[in-house]
């Protein structure tokens, strides 16, 4: 790293070190990223709201703390893009939906509060599929986000805004949420790193719920170490979240620095590495398996026979929980309110008109599915059966982790597809999460990291690593070892340039 380098090209750890040493100010770093957003986000559309004033104030506070001789946290002064499903006091939070247009929360989510306490500079809120329902960020009420590798392609979803902000060098860090792959799949198709922590490992307080038993906030960055530093910043027990795990946080940073897989047993999931995967995705995955073997790991094939049923179970459990969670958006308490000036409508009429105007087609589709699955006479046949499948998938994980330390698979079956290509085919869209959904159903942690470009289209490919619950550190150990080996092979990081920008 040299002081003459473009500040937006620094990793988060390099940026933090430069600020701590007084080589650059946090305000200079924030301004460089705000300038980058102004220059390229008109084409990318990663952000829904940019908080210029708040970001510069936060950066100035970090510079003042340093000038006063205070010890800075590991990420103090580093800019971050925050997915618009997490509340930030006084800042618009829409969840990508018209029904929350203009809502400014009166409180911070726990993740937001911990970022602020660590001196992380929040640049703004990123675009997403409405209420996190989607795999392409095309379901945002505010228009799609574009993949910086090819602006005609999707950046993944639902957290495509956060992943695209990283890939476009608009921020070195981002926060996403993952209900069925919404951190990991965008990471895969944008060439970035994304982690879904163990369920309960990061507080959900202030995370606007989609499916409460599946949702998990997590860290996103351009390197494994940066992701680990962010993970350590936001993780830990929170009494405000009844599902928060009151257990010690694994030392993910030490694991990322260790980066040694010698003697580890790594399982390739048989059911997630066969037919249905793009040839270039499979090629890069196979090459990565060979590298892990060369690094001293024992790689074996592992059967998880119930994983093929995960997609069907997920698309009953998620809509069922969504139909309950989204009932609060009724035009009465906050957000959009439609139809009360039309004569003397009943409250039921106002609710109906508000929801019809405020929710997009994908949200309406899933609410209807979930309400049907929970209805009298169908609950046991649909929702109840899906929960039984969920138990079988958790048992598959438990059996696998008796044999191996981690499991691996491709993160997504294909590279980024064209905008609009699957928008009219919900089932084809849902299949993008076929490899990521099992970890959400079981509550186990997962990581996606870039392992090269597919030969046929030159677009990023992601590899997924899965570990037992509360063994998130294993993700970072394996991920960092593979990242280092690939870096030696490539001679440069995959994201040294933003290809379309």
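Sequence proposed for the structure above (501 residues):
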């Amino acid at each position: 790293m040299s002081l003459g380098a473009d500040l937006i090209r620094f990793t988060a750890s390099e940026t933090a070190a430069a600020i701590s040493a007084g080589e650059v100010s946090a305000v200079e770093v924030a301004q460089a990223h705000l300038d980058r957003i102004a220059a390229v986000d008109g084409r990318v559309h990663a952000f829904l709201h940019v908080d210029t004033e708040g970001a510069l104030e936060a950066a100035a506070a970090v510079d003042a703390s340093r000038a006063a001789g205070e010890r800075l946290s590991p990420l103090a002064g580093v800019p971050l893009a925050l997915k618009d499903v997490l509340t930030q006091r006084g800042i618009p939070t829409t969840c990508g939906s018209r029904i929350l247009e203009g809502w400014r929360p009166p409180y911070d989510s726990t993740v937001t509060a911990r970022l602020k306490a660590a001196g992380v500079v929040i640049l703004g809120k990123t675009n997403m599929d409405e209420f996190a329902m989607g795999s392409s960020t095309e379901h945002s009420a505010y228009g799609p986000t574009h993949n910086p590798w090819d602006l005609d392609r999707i950046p993944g979803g639902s957290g495509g805004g956060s992943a695209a902000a990283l890939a476009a060098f608009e921020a070195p860090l981002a926060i996403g949420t993952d209900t069925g792959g919404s951190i990991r799949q965008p990471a895969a198709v944008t060439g970035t790193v994304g982690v879904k922590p163990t369920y309960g490992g990061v507080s959900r307080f202030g995370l606007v719920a989609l499916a409460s038993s599946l949702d998990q906030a997590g860290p996103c960055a351009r390197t494994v170490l940066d992701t680990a530093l962010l993970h350590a910043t936001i993780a830990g027990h929170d009494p405000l979240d009844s599902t928060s795990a009151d257990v010690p946080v694994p030392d993910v940073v030490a694991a990322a620095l260790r980066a040694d897989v010698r003697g580890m047993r790594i399982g390739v999931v048989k059911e997630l590495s066969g037919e249905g995967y793009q040839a270039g995705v499979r090629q890069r995955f196979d090459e990565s398996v060979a590298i892990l073997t060369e690094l001293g790991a024992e790689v074996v094939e592992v059967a998880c026979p119930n994983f093929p049923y995960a997609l069907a179970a997920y698309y009953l459990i998620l809509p069922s929980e969504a139909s309950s969670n989204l009932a609060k958006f009724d035009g009465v308490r906050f957000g959009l309110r439609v139809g009360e000036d039309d004569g003397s409508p009943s409250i039921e009429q106002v609710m109906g008109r508000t929801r019809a105007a405020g929710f997009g087609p994908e949200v309406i589709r899933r609410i209807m599915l979930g309400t049907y699955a929970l209805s009298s006479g169908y609950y046991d046949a649909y929702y109840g059966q899906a929960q039984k499948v969920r138990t079988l998938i958790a048992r598959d994980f438990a059996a696998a982790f008796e044999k191996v330390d981690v499991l691996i698979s491709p993160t997504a079956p294909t590279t980024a597809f064209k905008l609009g290509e699957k928008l009219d085919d919900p089932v084809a869209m849902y299949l993008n999460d076929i490899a990521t959904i099992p970890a959400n159903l079981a509550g186990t942690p997962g990581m996606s990291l870039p392992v090269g470009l597919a030969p046929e289209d030159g677009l990023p490919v992601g590899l997924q690593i899965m570990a037992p619950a509360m063994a998130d550190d294993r993700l970072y150990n394996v991920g960092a070892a593979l990242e280092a080996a690939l870096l030696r092979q490539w001679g440069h990081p995959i994201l040294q340039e933003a290809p379309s920008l």
